């Protein structure tokens, strides 16, 4: 697990006790499904370094309880979202084994606080990706296949009133994901030109293209490999990498059926109950 405060050019803005209290507040919000005020309001001095420390504290807690890391996600990969939150690069979070939901299944809304759906081209690695210096070509070689996917994002912060520090601390607002069942070799498609349609209850509510993710989702995977390498983390074979959404987030309610259709890749669907 990476340790942010060990980096020689980084210093904490919060004390260790404040970080622990913030992590516990997010943990309790997730357990009770009762959202909390933004950490950026409760702890005005919090910075992104603090936020990653808080994220990692809760990831360690889940690993100690038996969860396993099965991949990573990239957030804020669209320039519009970066501009909205006043940042110049994406963020990342961890994907744990209990976040994966079978395609076509029904997900209880009781799992979430205020969920929203995004659709993404998921990468499944066949080889290790170890930065620094990972290139787009390295990602292409290391990718076993890609899949259509739906990510269910959620915020433990009331009304999604978030700044970059809030979403980073909240494990990049991750909650669950659904992978489609038809693998496609990355070399058989142009990863920057995959059209995507998001349907809710049969109605088209969002359309987009994989190129919305940093111009090409392969770039997002390379960014992730190089970013986590600073902290001794390697992207491992079999891990799933979610590079970022092709569309805007869509709110979800009980009874909703969400389907994602991708050019070439096929479709994936899930229902909420």
Structure description:
It is a single chain. This protein has 273 residues and is α+β, with helices and mostly antiparallel strands. Helix 1 (16-32) crosses helix 3 (48-64). It has helices at 16-32, 39-42, 48-64, 79-85, 136-142, 164-169, 217-229, and strands spanning 69-75, 91-96, 100-101, 106-107, 116-125, 143-153, 174-179, 195-200, 203-209, 240-242, 250-251, 257-262, 266-272. It has a single domain, classed as Alpha-Beta Complex (Fumarylacetoacetate hydrolase, domain 2), CATH 3.90.850. The strands form 2 sheets. Strands 1, 2, 3, 5, 6, 7, 10 and 11 form an 8-stranded mixed beta sheet that branches. A 5-stranded mixed beta sheet has the order 4-13-12-8-9, with no helix packed on it. The chain is built from 7 helices and 13 strands.
Short description:
With 273 residues, the protein is an alpha+beta fold.
- The portion of residues forming beta strands comes to 25-35%
Oligomeric state as shown: single chain
Provide a count of the helices: 7
Please give the number of β-strands: 13
What does the largest sheet look like? Answer: 8 strands, mixed
Structural class call reads alpha+beta
Question: How many domains, as an integer?
Answer: 1
What's the CATH H-level homologous superfamily?
A: Fumarylacetoacetase-like, C-terminal domain
CATH topology: Fumarylacetoacetate hydrolase, domain 2
Low-pLDDT runs: 2-9
Helix content: 25-40%
The level 1 CATH classification is: Alpha Beta
State mean pLDDT (0 to 100 scale). Answer: 93
Rough outline: globular
Assign the CATH architecture.
Alpha-Beta Complex
What is the CA-CA span between the terminal residues? 35 Å
Radius of gyration: 18 Å
The H-and-E topology, N to C, reads as HHHEHEEEEHEHEEEHEEEE
């Amino acid at each position: 697990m990476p340790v942010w405060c060990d980096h020689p050019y980084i210093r904490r803005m919060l004390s260790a006790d404040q970080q622990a209290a913030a992590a516990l507040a997010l943990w309790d919000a997730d357990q009770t499904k009762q959202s909390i005020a933004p950490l950026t309001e409760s702890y005005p001095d919090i910075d992104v370094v603090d936020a990653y420390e808080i994220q990692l504290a809760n990831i360690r807690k889940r690993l100690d309880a038996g969860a396993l890391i099965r991949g990573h996600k990239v957030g804020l990969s669209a320039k519009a979202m970066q501009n909205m939150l006043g940042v110049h690069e994406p963020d990342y979070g961890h994907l744990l084994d209990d976040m994966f939901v079978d395609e076509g299944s029904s997900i209880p809304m009781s799992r979430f606080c205020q969920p929203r759906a995004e659709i993404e081209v998921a990468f499944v690695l066949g080889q290790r990706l170890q930065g620094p210096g990972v290139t787009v070509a390295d990602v292409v070689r290391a990718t076993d296949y890609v899949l259509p996917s739906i990510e269910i994002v959620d915020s433990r912060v009331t009304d999604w009133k978030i700044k970059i520090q809030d979403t980073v601390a909240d494990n990049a607002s991750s909650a669950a994901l659904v992978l489609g069942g038809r693998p496609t070799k990355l070399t058989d498609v142009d990863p920057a030109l995959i059209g995507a349609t998001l349907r809710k209850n049969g109605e088209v509510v969002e359309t987009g293209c994989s190129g919305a993710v940093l111009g090409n989702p392969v770039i997002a995977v390379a960014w992730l490999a190089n970013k986590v390498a600073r902290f001794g983390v390697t992207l491992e074979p079999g891990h799933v990498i979610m590079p970022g959404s092709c569309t805007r987030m869509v709110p979800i309610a009980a009874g909703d059926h969400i389907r994602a259709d991708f050019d070439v890749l096929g479709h994936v669907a899930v229902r909420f109950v």
